[in-house]
Design a protein that fits this description.
Four copies of one chain form a homotetramer.
Chain A (H helix, E strand, L loop, with lengths): L2 E7 L3 H17 L4 E8 L3 H11 L3 E3 L2 H6 L5 E4 L6 H10 L4 E3 L7 H14 L3 E3 L7 H11 L6 E9 L22 H4 L1 H11 L3 E9 L4 E3 L7 E3 L5 E8 L4 E7 L8 E8 L2 E6 L5 E6 L9 E5 L20 H16 L9 H20 L3 E2 L4
Parallel strand pairs in A: 1-2, 1-4, 2-3, 4-5, 5-6, 7-12
Antiparallel strand pairs in A: 7-13, 8-11, 8-17, 9-10, 11-12, 13-14, 14-15, 15-16
Helix pairs in contact in A: 1-9, 4-5, 5-10, 8-10
Chain lengths: ~375, ~375, ~375, ~375
């Protein structure tokens, strides 16, 4: 059984999820290469050692550069805070190693483009963790749109709303650090943008709005020392797609009660598709032309006839979980690394997504419509 | 039993609904004045006679001016196509008779303002049929916001989407006639704008987008002769409220599968309220501070503890219907005419709503942010 | 305009609803006879006078026998407590007047049968207020079953659960008085039984279970004096239909949180239909043979293509309310009285329903399967 | 890192799920023993070899007795067809090895009791795969009931309905073989019975009903040769719990459109809990005593404050999948084998569940109420 050595940088929320998926993918999907969890890097030796043990990595290091240099590491997997994505990825690329990076790729489109150029120059394969694109119901939405089942797309209405920053005393974290990029528009907004592009296509122009709801937060839990917040808590934009379709995109991390509202509605000339990730094993489909008195949205439950489901479970409606989606992502990545279909979204696509993020920010600052190509 | 003589102009969808409500209101609510259905006017004598019979009016006329002049008519109720709202209302005001007019009030804010001025000059009482404001669950949303139960309002996300113009062969109607005003932004958009103002408050500035999806439609059902459509099939805007809250507002009459998606979500610093009129007897409420592991949105079913419900039914969850909402509107209007609390929304409020509609149109045409006071 | 004089006995929950519907039906449906609200009887003159005023009746009386004798009364409408249904109905029948009676018809099947016999002997038209049978979505369920759209019916699973007796201190009322009949099995159970018969057909045999949850209740609100409760708070049965289908039927008035859970699921060999009256403008339909990956339940919203909807509103999804359903019932009744299609359910059908109720009670007491014909 | 050698018998639907869970559990939960996938047995050497490769087992065999004898096998995991559960389990017990067996434990309670006795005599630890008991929302239901949050339990209404046998041409499988036990009452019914016992407690008596909907099925896909079906396609029972609570339990594998309707509602004197596994990351909770006008069911999304969730994901609402539930089961089992809290449900509990299954069958055959202790 051929293996591929994984070096993971970071062991937080997403590091943990990557580890789950890397351990699970070969067993679920019978991959050509089995991920071997070789080395985990974190902020220092102690943290790294503990995380390696918890997540099943063979070795650990407090130095991510050592990880990149390590001959056992054949794939560099980056789940560190956003501000570190670029230096680590560039170093891995420089070392000629494929990179699997969490989103958002970079603090801004310019830096993302530098990462794209570096990777393409070196011919290094790249992957970015927009995991919800691997949800079989999102893939089904794309398939329904692409097949013309709902006619021509007229509009897209999407949002990614959660509530983890609702409490004004929730402390400052790296997500709020402007050095790492924008706020919720990048953190959650990039997910709904990635879906808009995946299902409908490129966004050409937009007008955006950002809002910082809580302008000062404690520097740490329970502290009275405060730090100013420069990034956005809410973001929204009106958009025009290259196809002529229009729509809206929103993001919020202060949406009280919303835990995973990554929801979108694609309206076509002959039907509509709706998905909401608080019930992500469902897709709602309406098509015109149903008999009078029998018209209605259909609730389709994920099942073995949808992409990547049957390897988890042969029975429909039994449901996939969050980590299963990540496992599908790892399958696609390992398949690509073994010479199969190229992985999407790669750095180039992540840059395109980042340009939309940046365009929203620029538009909001300048209070005007912006062409995405301006960014 | 004191009565008030009603003169109804128009007998289409809304005319019929008004008639239901006018017949029902006194019985349901025990009003100080009982509406007496005196006179119905329509495009000609025949149509009017037939409609009067069907809707329970004592007499009929093909001449709305005769209706206004008729001494038995003490309230002029206008449900004619939009383009007629202004001349009829002005004539009624001139005659010193109170006016109950369907929305939108006028083709544009300027004309709406002329109607406001005329009414205020004459001291005539006015009412505009934004009926969903009378849905007890919309009133509950306002009450929850006003009481501070969800803290300070951060944002509002609203839409009114239906699908009656989805078919590109759906023929041209007065709703598409630019002489009567704008398209869906006025027809459905005005409803969600009215709710935004009712629940959150005035909108100060916005940036809008309009789209005509089907640019030519048959002049009549089954005809091949086509007529160009100048008005919008879809509309959306990003908005800023006077309170500092922000949000988005959308409208569509080509949203395949949506029959009555008049839906909104108000996010506050301490909770969230959600209402969707496809299930308009429900309100979803989330508040922060619930015990760990027990957090969740609550589904509140309309019941006798909510405004105007118990007069229809003493038992909760038994549900009100569309015409019941209109009946509540009539109750409020008759109460106001009998000297009770003034009716809202009156012409002035309808003008304010129309200004937001016009601002969206102007913003979309000029592709820039617009202050609502510019209109 | 021909009228029919109505004499209403009782002015509680259902009396009020009947009055709404009687006032509304002619206007909504253009009936051959317009109900004229002539006379209202209640427990004494004062109560009756007040109720007549509130509900729009011309005159009132404290003596229901006077009401039956009154020449202006052409239809006797009985919404008094259950224990009075039989004497009033028999007197009306004796007077040769048609009877419109609330359910349940009688305290038991034997007495119901006496009422059937009396009516049939006299040739008097009868109607019983199982209003949910007039919900267009229940009629649609029957139509779907009858047309074979879901194949042959395999089973039925139904429940009517509410929570108005949940509080153990909720006082004793006439609903709990064994003299008026059984408990929830009659009050709510009869509704779900009526639907089972309407949609699937006659029930042949069953085994039942009853439970009195709160065995003593205050004689009045706030009193400490208690009275023993002899009737059931919960009821359930396994049933066999004449067609060979099987199923279960349940009823509860102590189902905390359930306000109007009159819900049923009909499973056929080729599909399934689901209706729940907490969202009674919806029907959920699944049919086999949908394409792989596109299988799902469809949510059908009530609209103008369904029975009796378009007279209320031409637009789908706008929703009917509780009183609208009663208005449809009145339409059917008035139509029958004017010589149209006979009204169902009449006394005979109500007796059949009562037999099922009694069979559940007998089965529960004797702890054995019971043939409905035994009762 | 200490390991425990796993020998898996069977590699179908559940074998695959066990393999996923066994591979995943140590990584997710940091277990005291890491499952080592040593040996897989199946019907012959070829099938076993192929399955071992696919599911990540080191070795394979066509002889389950060899598996039990294998010194590397420290836990015998049985996912073979039901008819094999008993002989394999008894052999493993005889060999002194702990047993992890899929449900149902045995074809009937008598044989299940023999298995219990054997295990208890030998002091062998046992576990049965009623995985839905490990769903954090089912555990939450039990916790809510046990804590008194909904008062005393009045009743339980449960069902497990799927549709995999709806097609009358679906071929005969081992699930239909009466030698392996009863039909859906055992296959799915046992799940809802296990939940009823877990959440409410022991069932004392019941009356049941079984139905074979399709009495003959093809012996294989596409064949015209038919085989008689002796087992039930639908089952239902009215039950009495030891606590005095009552309720109903249903099961169907011909419920067209239902993919994973394992749903139950527990009604207490002060509230209600509802769970449906088609949305198994949600629990609906109603409690009495909410303020007037604010009463409603709360939708609680699974999150890190619920049992076993946070090890999968720190963020609420992100959802667990079917295999994650099985992984929680494996965690509990491995913990028990390492000396932690005893695993439940063990063979004894599975026997108790089987007694209820058998009591339903006996009651249905004899058409009478049956005490579970009769079985």
């Amino acid at each position: 059984m051929k293996t591929i050595g994984i070096g993971l940088v970071g062991s937080g929320f997403m590091g943990r999820s990557h580890a789950h998926a890397l351990r699970a993918a070969a067993g679920v999907f019978g991959l050509p290469l089995t991920p071997s969890l070789e080395l985990l890097a974190d902020v220092n030796d102690d943290v790294a050692a503990k995380a390696a043990k918890a997540l099943g990595f063979a070795r650990s290091t407090g130095d991510w550069q050592a990880l990149i240099a390590d001959p056992a590491v054949e794939l560099v997997d980056i789940t560190a805070p956003n501000v570190f994505h670029k230096p680590i990825a560039l170093a891995a690329i420089e070392a000629g190693k494929p990179v699997y990076c969490e989103k958002p790729l970079a603090p801004n489109a310019l830096e993302a483009k530098q990462m794209v150029d570096a990777a393409e120059r070196k011919g290094v394969k790249t992957a970015v963790g927009f995991n919800y694109l691997k949800n079989p119901m999102v893939m089904l939405a794309r398939e329904i749109v692409a097949s013309g089942e709902i006619g021509e797309v007229i509009s897209f209405r999407g949002i990614h709303a959660e509530d983890y920053m609702t409490d004004p005393l929730a402390p400052f974290t790296w997500r709020l650090d402007a050095a790492g990029g924008h706020g919720v528009v990048a953190d959650l907004g990039s997910h709904i943008i990635s879906i808009a592009r995946f299902v409908v296509g490129p966004i050409e122009s937009l007008v955006g709005q950002l809002k910082t709801v809580t302008s000062r937060r404690p520097v740490a839990p329970g502290t009275t020392e405060m730090r100013a917040v420069e990034v956005d808590d809410e973001a929204r934009a009106l958009v025009r797609f290259a196809t002529g379709a229009t729509g809206s995109i929103e993001a919020s991390w202060v949406a009280a009660g919303r835990k995973m509202m990554l929801a979108f509605e694609v309206t076509g000339s002959k039907g509509t598709v709706v998905v909401d990730h608080e019930r992500f094993n469902e897709l709602h489909l309406y098509t015109t032309g149903q008999p009078h008195g029998r018209e209605g949205f259909k609730t389709i439950l994920a099942g073995p006839h949808h992409d990547s489901y049957k390897e988890f479970c042969p029975a429909p409606g039994h449901q996939l979980g969050f980590n299963d989606i990540k496992t599908i992502e790892v399958k696609a990545l390992i398949t690509a690394l073994a010479g199969g279909a190229p992985f999407q979204p790669d750095f180039r696509e992540a840059w395109e997504i980042q340009r939309v993020v940046d365009a929203i920010v620029q538009s909001a600052r300048e209070e005007r419509w912006v062409e995405v190509t301006e960014v």
